[in-house]
Write a structure and sequence with these properties.
By secondary structure, the protein is an all-alpha fold. It has one domain. Helix content is 64%, strand content 1%. A two-stranded antiparallel sheet has the order 1-2. Strand 1 and strand 2 form a beta hairpin. Helix 10 packs antiparallel against helix 12. The protein is globular and about 70 Å long.
Length: 483
Amino acid sequence: MSWRHLLHVVGAVLGAIGLSMLAAPVISAVYMEWSDIPGLTLAAAITTLVGFGLWRTFDRPGELSTREGFATVGLAWIALALFGALPYLLTGSIGNLTDAVFEAAAGFTTTGASVVGNPGELSHGILFWRSLTQWIGGMGIIVLSIAILPLLGMGAVQLARAESPGPMPDRLTPRFKETAKRLWLVYFVLTAVETVLLWFGDMTLFESANHALTTMSTGGFSTNAGSIGAFSAYTQWVVIVFMALAGISFALHYKVARRDWKAYFRSVELRVYLSVVVVAAVLMSIGTWAGPVTTTVRDAIFTSLTIVTTTGYATADFGQWIPALGIMIVGLMFIGGMAGSTSGAIKTDRLHILYEASRTDVRRLIHPRGVFVTRVGRTPVPDVVVETVQTFFLLYMFAFMSGTFLMAIIGSISGSEIDLITTVTSVASSLGNVGPGLGEVGPTGNYLGMPWAGKWLLVSLMIVGRLEILPILILFNREVWRK
């Protein structure tokens, strides 16, 4: 393991982020918010100089090993949370380091948890930076770097494997760099289309762009304290459609865009994903049946999608729904969208493999001499893949239980009266990159009142969940750092 190689790549990532920060002072200038421009410009300058300083100082890796790729990604995302906090701190938008890092981490990990009570009070430049962090983090800054920066060279596959949400994305071309470019092209086009459609409704161009950035990234940051519920039914339906698209593999979207029209119909995982959304929406409609039918159905579909895709928007205060629906919402926080989408949590393909593997095990018990193979659709799943999925699920649940235990201890030591519902759902929501939970951190609340130690714990869980555990675990493995 070479620190020089790791710092070279981390520097490249920070340099790219620093350049992207320059969009924020430009937006502030457009809206004549002169007081924020010096702070935003300084934040961009610091991040860019540190990033490119590391890049030029340390050696370029000829090829990253798998463990170097995982370790690099873990370090890069920690650096993103720290440097991404600078715009908030240097403009005074968020007054302390803990809250600023929390907001930055929630942005880059597309968690959508926030310490900002009313986003409408923030300047346009800060609001745009807040949304941009989610859009960049959605497809992944490492994958973006692979797509546009040739400096990462032969380590592209290892980095993408460590950073991309879900299992390894489909190789659309023999070279992963070309695959990354095409996935980002689909991501960009869908974002642009949603921006235009939202602009046709009751959103301004600025609001449309911000919400398109945070919808396609399944992030959930809004420019309004009322989230999407503050806008018209038309706007809510547009967001519903694009949340559903964001929860689908972008490689699948690309295949359809290339006129492989049957790609959607061939995908078993897509059928599982849509089935979960539909069943959840039907149960929510039944459980909240009151008032206008159209509003009830729309809120149910919206809430089902926003939780399953881990977007985190809200049109209804689902924290006030009946307990049975509250329990179901907590369960949905663990599911997530398809592999290769921008959603968080466990992902539907892993859960489907676990289900099929359990069926196979039952059949083996009934017929000890039989030979059975776990299949997804008609495709056999190798035992090594099943074991990997089982290991991930075990680690994910261990992280959830450990996080809940630690949050309860922090609440007791700090004297904060964090109830059990808030404790459990804040951890589940952060680990799954959802955003809102139940209780004090529900859709009408925020994370500002959490104790400072609890916020740092949740930041850790956001990064662990976004990187799907392994890159962070590798950082704490002594064998990795041995020569």
